[in-house]
């Protein structure tokens, strides 16, 4: 019986070390998931950002905001102030950057200063990592909310499948 336990212990120890081995060429590497062609909708948890985008073969064909707010400022309001309209254009440039690109380009939004258009009072120097800052009104809309909304749409699945 002791011999059996010894053999079993050695066998289990050997198997546990095999699981720790370095990946080999036969080991599969994680890849970007493939999403169904269609229209996706997602939002940020607090309801300030909602997006809708169309995917074809994992390429973003179109994307738009369904909701874009910060505190009491609705960036999509028809009666928005000139400043708000300018800022909405800056936020639009973030999602426009994604059109025609693979969904992996969503990660580009972690560096909004390299994407967002500059406007009077806003320069790349005033855009911090992960956020776009409105130095005209003091409002901040984090690009992280946009990233989360896009990922939420992917996680929820297609809102409407392509025909």
From TrEMBL:
Signal sequence segment: 1-21
Protein's UniProt name: FMN-binding protein
Top-rank taxon: Bacteria
InterPro entries: FMN-bd
This protein's record includes keyword Signal: yes
Provenance organism: Holtiella tumoricola
GO cellular component: membrane
FMN-binding domain span: 46-154
GO molecular function ontology, one term from the record: FMN binding
Pfam families: FMN_bind
Presence of the UniProt keyword Signal in the record: yes
Classification via PROSITE patterns: PROKAR_LIPOPROTEIN
Keywords tagged on the record: Signal
